[in-house]
Amino acid sequence: SEEIRLLYVAFTRARDILEIVPFTEDSSKNIDWLYEILQEFSSLKEVNKLADYKNPELSITENTIKITEYNSANLALNQKAETVIESKLTINQNRDIGIVYHDIFNYLVKGGKIDVLAKFIEQKKYLLLAKEKLEIIKQVKKIYNDDELNYIFNVTGYAELELTGKFAAKLITGRIDRLIISDHIIEIIDYKYETGNEIKAKYFTQLDKYAALVAANFTSNKKIIKKILFIKSRKLITL
Q: What is the pTM of this model?
């Protein structure tokens, strides 16, 4: 019917204003709600599943979906459209909580108040259990009040800094969690929601790339120091 055709077109046109929610309670479900609706009206073919995007902080799976518009006798021309729909992020619980810590640290670096942390978490609407929220607040306060770690939040520098440059003759882009520039050194600090009992080889490569980006974007003879803050154990390790 004409009503069905109009409904289908409305959904396909909505792609330009769709907001993809990055957190989901059902991370095993890999089909977008729009996918389920559209397949009632048209043949819908999954043409390609991309490999996990290799990001050191977050691994997501994307689906590229080709949608052919509903054909109706009322249409003067049969038109075709391609729409790329990102599936819901499939993030395991550790990485989900790791993202929360990243957001909180960024909030504190930019002048956020530690005593209203619970309010900040509520405003962000994370899908967390009450006990998880309490544990996060407790751990953040321990890091914030640690004499050896609290400088991360209290000195001038950059947070979530995106840089582009070359590494091994290739153009790369990276987002550095924390960059602190003092009189004689530049500190690169990366956050990991781990204990730090095992320092993976890929972390050395990741921080080497960050150092190359800093060297390419900051004209300075200062020594570049690479560090990882392991959140679970509250350890700051220099690589």
A: 0.60
